[in-house]
Structures are given as C-alpha cells and as structure tokens.
Specification:
Length: 79
Amino acid sequence: MLFRGLGDSLVVRENHVNRVAFPPPGFRLLATSNECEVEAVAHEHMRVYGVQFHPERPPPDLPLSRKVLENFLELAISS
C-alpha cells in the first residue's frame, strides 16, 4: 500500500549515516536497494511503516518519491 501506483522500482534520494541492517521482529521488508539492505518495512499486523529515504523532500528530478508520502497520509487518514 505504501508504494501503490509506483511500479516495481522507484528512484529516491537518501541521505543517512545510520541504517537498519535487517527488519525488526514483526516487520516485513517492503523495499531494498544497492545502497541499503532495508529501504522500507511494514509491520505484519498493524499499519506501521518505516522508510530510510526522504519522501517528504522530493527533488524536482525525482517527483515520484512524494507519492510514497501521499500514500502514507492516505493510510493514516483511513485508519
């Protein structure tokens, strides 16, 4: 649901020093990249998500990353 409407791959901008190496217990992997083993996770039973990129600051050359934030907000409103 977090990546609804975005196809099989998405280019985003990330900027972090720390990273999650594997999903924590109760979470499943949603996305990975060559740069980071865990780019996005979702809780198995609750509407809890985590991403390691910045959908709130999409650069002009990567407009689709904002759709992740829009999808998240739709999920939050429908809860």
